[in-house]
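Intended use. Records like the one below are meant for learning the mapping from a protein sequence to its folded structure. Do not use them to infer anything beyond what is encoded.
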Amino acid sequence: MFSLEGKHCLVTGAISPLQRAFAVGLAEAGANVSLTTLSGGKEEEVAANSILNECWSIGVKGEVLSIDLRNTTQLDQSVSELESNIGPIDVLVNATHTAVIKPFLEFSTEEAHEIFTNNVQSTLISTSVIGKKMLARGKGKVINVVSILADRGVPNCAIFSATQGSILGFTRSLGIEWIRQGVTVNALGLGFFADLPGPQQDDALREILEKYIPVRRLGDSTDLQGALVYLSSDSSNFVDSEMIVVDGAISVHA
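Structure written out for the chain above:
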C-alpha cells in the first residue's frame, strides 16, 4: 500500500540527521532518492554523499546536487540533468531547517534575513522549479517540513517561528491552487527532536520538554519516516493542504 517503487524523490538541504532519516526511509520504501545541499561547499557535499551512499546500499539509484539551493538558475539546470539521468521527480521533500534560537532583539537584520533565505526562499525556489515540471506532467507531490512552532509560541524562537508560519501558509494555499492539476502540497509537522537544532538543545528546557511531552521523550528523526512515506505514496492522493504532525502529542497537550 505504501510502496514507492518506481518513484523518484528529491530531498533538499541534505546535511543533517533529519534529511538522512528522510532519504533512508524513502529508499527503504523502494524509491530512488536524490539529494541537494543547501548552499554548496565541500562540507555539505561530503554530508550529502554520505547520505546518498546509505541509500545506494539499499539498492536504489540517485544523485547529489551540490548547489546553492537558493539560486533558481543553478537549481533549474541541475534538476534538468538529474531528471535526464535518474527520471522525473515524483516527490519533492523541502527539508531545509535552519533554527537559531535566541532573543529576538539579539538578531541582526542580516542574520534574520539569512534564516528566512535558508528556510523560506529555498522552499519557494525548489517548489517553483520542480513544481513547474510536475504540473506539466499532471502529477506530483510536494512535502514541506514545518515545525509546530509555526503556530505555537516559545520564547527565543520568534525568527524561526516566523519562517515556519510562512511555509505553513504557503503549503495550505498552494495545495488548493495546484490540486486540480494533479499536484498535492502538504506539510510534515515536527515537534521537538533530540537530534535536531531548536530550544530542546538547552539542557534545562530539554528536561522540561521531556516531562511535558505526553510520550515522555523527545523525538528521533526516524520517528518521521512512516509519515513521510505515507505522504509520498499514492495512498495519500486524497490528502492536500494538510499538516500531518509527529510530535508525541505535545501540540494537543493543555
